[in-house]
Amino acid sequence: MTAVTLRRITGLTLIAFVALAGIFAPWLSAFDPNASGYDILYPASAEHPFGTDDLGRDVFTRVLYGARISLVIGPAAALIVALIGIPIGLVAGYAHGRADQMIVQVIDLFIAIPAFVLALIVMAMIGASLPNLVFVLGLVMWPEMARLVRGQVKSVRERLYIEAADAIGCSRTRILARHIWPNIMHTIAAQLAITVSTAIFTAASLGFLGLGLPPPAADWGGMVQSGFDYLSLNPWLSIAPGCAVAMTVMGFYLLGRTID
Amino acid sequence: MTDPKTPPLLQVEDLRVSFGAGAHETRAVDGIGLTVERGRTHGIVGESGSGKSMLSLAIMGLVPDSGRIASGRIRLGGRDLAGLPYREMQAIRGKRIAMIFQEPMTSLNPLYTIGRQLSEAIRAHDRRASAREIRNRAIELLRRVRIPSPERRVDDYPHQMSGGMRQRVMIAMALSCGPELLIADEPTTALDVTVQVQILDLLRELQDETGMAMIFITHDLGVVAAVADEVSVMYAGRVVETGTARNIFEDAQHPYTLGLLGSRPRLDRNLHRLPTIEGAVPPPFDLPPGCRFEPRCAFATPDCAAACPGLRPFGGNHLAACFRAPVKEIAR
Amino acid sequence: MLNFVLRRLMWVLPNIVLLTFLLFAVVTNWLGSPASMMLGTDASPEAVAELNARYGFDRPVVVQYLQWIGNAATGDFGRSYATRQPVAEMIGPAIPVTLELTFWTMLLAISATLVINSIPVGKHVVGALTTGISIVGVTVPNFLLGATLISIFSVSLGWLPTTGWRPWSDGIFTHLQHLILPVLTLSAYYFSTFSMIYRAEYRQVEQQLFVRVAEAKGISRRAVSFLHVLPNAILPLVVYIGTSIGNLVGGAVVTETVFSIPGLGRLFVSAIARYDFPVMLTMGMITLAGVMLMNLAAELILALLNPQIRL
């Protein structure tokens, strides 16, 4: 088994695990993720595997329900990245000379902006909500995708048979659809998986800094933050949701990293 | 011709270079024999994929980490080099056997001046020389390979030189320690035709000056005709025909050699299309069971698909590996 | 040399102006306004207009931008809405803290990258292990790594202080003791990304013909690695490291929050939490300019190291 296959299987397993946890959350836990009816800061026990938080909510339940949120945020943000980044990359890759250069300069300009700082500022401006979060993540991540797609198109075009197809007189869209797209599809799919992983990572970091979803949403990043004050009392409050983030991020990352 | 008591300079016997193991084992070089006498030039001809480059790397002790010399001997003046560890080969590489490569554009490190890269080759085998002495020797080497104003060019970076100039630098580097054997792996393929001629002339002149032997690897029979004393034709990891240049060019026995000779462009015949050999060299992981040339051979019989022919003599040192040889009569 | 610097500056400076202007416009006009941010969305229009007039937010963006830049050039970044302190006075003490954190982090990450990836060249076990560590390093968020390190080394074992920052004046030992966990946390990510870039590059350079040529000269494997592969493989890292250093604020923001370190990152986060608009804006501008200038510096270093780039 090659390293890539091993990574892919591990990645898919992690994603499946997280997805199942999210889907079957109501069956896996008897508690309501937002009900605060229990003792506060109850230590880890058979009843509450990770204990209860400072509002008396069951942390295990909240971690399970958090999977639902993350698995919406990541793919939704990746969808926005794909919708903006892929067309721009395709156009830039197929354009010649000045048009290409101009698009490249715009892409380079946006890539120069530190994504996380921009995300923090914009989130602060427009306020925390699920659509806003997805929008911001898409906004800061599309240039990377556009650059990758452009590079891929360029390198495929270099290959001779495209030149040949050009000479025969195929239309540009036909060349893109028939000759270029099949060759770059897999790389783009891999990059999309990486984008999902980065989106979940960034969303969790924003949540940790207090710019995630507004309470009482079971937002993993926010849970880590609220547990931080009680690290010496019950480390699971922070570490359990933190591990959930890491698992999900790693799952998509492994799926997308097809090169060594 | 040579004293029978002194061994030839280089004698390769039944050399096998393998990659992978077990069922996945593939042989890039499969049972090759080769003899190079002092001061002579042995041309090796083959298409890409025939294993000729791997053969030269094996002689240099530079088989990639993923492969190994599975069996055979590489005797240099009687001493077997096959399987010597990297460290012990270090004293031989560059000193007794030197090599030049196909792509002069990428064979020099872009970060260092050519003077520094030449000095490295000199210092590798002469640790006592002073910096000034080494620099002077580097300049002298550049002069020997006919680089104009070597005192200035010695401080140039590779990107400041043309392909032909860089190949001259590579030759200078190879000559730096006075090797007994120079392996030239397609040294002119990547160059313009006029530059090719210059480099070939230079190599011949240098060979006359130094008396070194050469292994000249190429896919171009015209080049071989110009430089080689002996010729071996390789196909899919094996030698299919070997002999003197005259044997090969005037009395070829193997259908593959004949095919190669037939596909040379010639001015004295007015052909609309160059004759070519159909198909391509089979990759080492997908070899036919019998003769490796059989699927592409115009003379093949069912016997050819059943067993792999060994080399048979056709007078003197002229050997060919073909059941049907001599095929000339059949062709007529 | 001077020519090269000027040429690059001619390219970078307009970009800095363009980007900072975009940021300024986005923050002040396009995505809501400082007034609505401070007063909340349900503020009366009169209150918003009054505040806009008071702070000059009703003027054209270009005018506001130029004024801001003009003031910034004299060291005046405005006053914090939250503390009424001049922004420069708040940022000033935070800069050396983040700089020091970044210095140790980069030192550790870069040297670990070079040492760990150079020794085991060609050794499969160590190679696979480094790849595994790198994958963990880029996917585990800093807050999880920080929380785990604190739980183990501070809470359970009690070897190191949990959080906080002590100045040099409290003693070198105390100072460094407080640095260990933050530096470890932050460098884990950088080590992983640097390693990945370096390893990919190293493998690519190894395939180059000039490496074969160097081996054919009869020099040792170590000399081939260190003199021929490494210098070529390290060049792409230079630019990446430069950009990472430029992005001090963004890089350290989570780690500084985890360990309550009074650096630029935490200042930024607290400004965001308090809707402290002038501080936020200043941090954003500093980050943009920092990244682009460090990028330029890295390109210069690259040009000095690589003779193929003409100065």
Describe the protein.
The complex is a heterotrimer of chains A (260), B (332) and C (311). By secondary structure, chain A is mainly α. Chain A has ten helices and no strands. Chain B is of the alpha/beta class and 332 residues long. Helix content of chain B is 32%, strand content 21%. In chain B, the strands form two sheets. In chain B, strands 6-7-8-3-9-10-12-11 form an eight-stranded mixed sheet, with helices on both faces. In chain B, a hairpin with a 6-residue loop joins strand 1 and strand 2. The longest helix of chain B is centred in the middle third of the chain and has 18 residues, at 193-210. The model of chain B has no long low-confidence stretch (mean pLDDT 83). The radius of gyration of chain C is 23 Å and the shape is globular. Chain C folds into two domains: 2-90, no CATH class; 94-261, MetI-like fold, CATH 1.10.3720.10. Chain C has helices spanning 2-30, 34-39, 45-55, 61-73, 87-118, 124-139, 142-156, 172-206, 209-216, 221-246, 248-258, 264-273, 277-305. Helix content of chain C is 77%, strand content 0%. The longest helix of chain C is centred in the middle third of the chain and has 35 residues, at 172-206. Chains in contact: A-C, B-C. The interface between B and C is medium-sized, with 33 and 22 residues.
Shape of chain C: globular
Morphology call of chain A: elongated
Number of strands of chain C: 0
For the largest interface, the chains and their residue counts are: A-C, 44 and 49 residues
How many helices of chain A? The count is 10
The arrangement of helices and strands of chain C along the chain is HHHHHHHHHHHHH
How would you state the average pLDDT of chain C, rounded?
Answer: 82
Q: What is the alpha-carbon Rg of chain C in Å?
A: 23 Å
pLDDT averaged over residues of chain A: 82
Q: Hey, roughly how much beta strand do the residues of chain A contain? A: under 5%
Radius of gyration of chain A: 22 Å
CATH class of the largest domain in chain C: Mainly Alpha
Order of helices and strands of chain A: HHHHHHHHHH
- Quaternary arrangement of the chains shown? heterotrimer
Please state roughly what percent of the residues of chain C sit in beta strands, choosing from under 5%, 5-15%, 15-25%, 25-35%, 35-45% or over 45%: under 5%
- Can you give the helix content of chain C as a percent range? over 70%
Largest pleated sheet of chain C: none
Number of domains of chain C: 2
Classify the secondary structure makeup of chain A into a structural class: mainly alpha
Number of helices, counting only DSSP H or I runs of 4 residues or more of chain C: 13
